[in-house]
């Protein structure tokens, strides 16, 4: 890994609250986003448990990636964290305490949009401490079957993301892709309101497990052979965009910015988190050597 640059850390100007039905429990869940101190990162605080235990939002604390990202161990765990982490990462809010009164984040409408609007309502302030922007020195790829996530190296401080969604010709979800440079403006306009999606048979299987009992077709996208059931797409390639949204949330667990070209293909939370682990291993290896900071003139030419 190499340090490509730094930027000022950011936090919220004031606390803000978001509430909604939990997709897993069906209960009303309340969440508060609070300003965080410099270098404190993002921390979840379970206010419904004795002692108000805290779970740092870091790769080492991931305990589940089956259809969602979970941090911590039961009873002190919190699931479905990827959307709020994506909102914070997309809007470049680095230090934040997230108080939640359940073992999951509120589902809201299945997107990160309500979290982003709450962040705008709270306001964002810069802090004196800086956050490094890191880049890999070699292509880093993780694979499972025909699914991959690959981070290509760069000499700039920009993160470009591409996502290809292709479940085959028999899938009710068409082949689609999306590409964009990550910035708060692009995130809010292109990704924030893209919703969770699943197939009808997947939805039925979750209901049989007792999950999602109060989730309706208005809360997410359910695809059958006839298309989207009881809802309308916000973008023609909304599923691909939502996969990119998830990817940003999972990689926010790194605790630093990454730059390069990040390409996902048919991937989900398990590969997203595995890529984050690979990046952390490279960072640990590079920490044994003197820091490598690219000269400013090279950064300007690359930009």
**First CA to last CA: what distance?**
19 Å
User: What is the mean pLDDT?
Assistant: 91
Which percent range describes the beta-strand content? 25-35%
Helix content: 10-25%
- The CATH class assignment is Alpha Beta
**Would you report the number of β strands?**
18
Instruction: Output the number of helix runs.
Output: 7
Cα-atom Rg, whole angstroms?
A: 19 Å
In CATH, the topology is named Ribosomal Protein S5, domain 2
CATH architecture: 2-Layer Sandwich
- Largest sheet descriptor: 7 strands, mixed
Structural class: alpha+beta
Number of domains: 1
Low-pLDDT runs? 291-303
Helix-strand sequence: EEEEEEEEHEHEEEEEHEHEEHEHH
- The general outline is globular
Instruction: Report the CATH superfamily.
Output: lpxc deacetylase, domain 1
Topology, pairings included?
Blueprint: E1 2-12, E2 16-21, E3 28-35, E4 42-46, E5 54-56, E6 62-64, E7 70-73, E8 76-78, H1 82-90, E9 96-100, H2 113-122, E10 124-135, E11 140-144, E12 147-152, E13 159-165, E14 176-181, H3 184-191, E15 197-199, H4 200-208, E16 221-224, E17 227-228, H5 238-251, E18 257-265, H6 269-286, H7 296-302
Parallel strand pairs: 4-9, 10-18, 13-18, 15-16
Antiparallel strand pairs: 1-10, 2-3, 3-9, 4-5, 6-7, 7-8, 11-12, 12-18, 13-14, 16-17
């Amino acid at each position: 890994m190499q340090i490509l640059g730094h930027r000022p850390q950011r936090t919220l100007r004031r606390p803000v609250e978001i509430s909604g039905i939990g997709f897993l429990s069906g209960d009303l869940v309340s969440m508060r986003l609070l300003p965080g101190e410099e270098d404190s990162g993002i921390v979840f605080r379970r206010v419904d448990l004795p002692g108000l235990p805290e779970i740092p939002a870091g790769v080492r604390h991931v305990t589940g990636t089956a259809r969602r990202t979970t941090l911590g161990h039961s009873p002190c765990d919190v699931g479905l964290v990827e959307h709020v982490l994506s909102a914070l990462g997309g809007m470049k809010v680095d230090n934040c305490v997230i108080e939640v009164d359940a073992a999951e984040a509120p589902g809201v409408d299945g997107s990160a949009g309500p979290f982003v609007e709450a962040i705008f309502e709270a306001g964002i302030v810069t802090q004196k401490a800086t956050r490094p922007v890191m880049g890999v020195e070699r292509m880093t790829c993780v694979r499972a079957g025909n699914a991959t996530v690959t981070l290509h190296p760069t000499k700039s401080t920009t993160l470009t993301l591409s996502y290809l969604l292709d479940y085959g010709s028999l899938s009710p979800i068409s082949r689609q892709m999306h590409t964009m440079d990550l910035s708060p403006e692009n995130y809010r306009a292109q990704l924030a309101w893209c919703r969770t999606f699943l197939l009808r048979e997947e939805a039925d299987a979750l209901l049989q497990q007792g999950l999602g009992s109060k989730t309706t077709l208005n809360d997410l996208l359910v695809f059958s052979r006839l298309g989207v059931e009881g809802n309308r797409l916000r973008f023609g390639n909304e599923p691909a965009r939502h996969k990119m949204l998830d990817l940003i949330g999972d990689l926010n667990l790194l605790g630093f910015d990454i730059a390069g070209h990040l390409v996902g293909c048919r991937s989900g939370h398990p590969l997203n988190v595995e890529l984050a682990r690979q990046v952390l291993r490279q960072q640990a290896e590079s920490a044994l050597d003197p820091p490598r900071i690219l000269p400013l003139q090279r950064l300007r030419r690359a930009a």
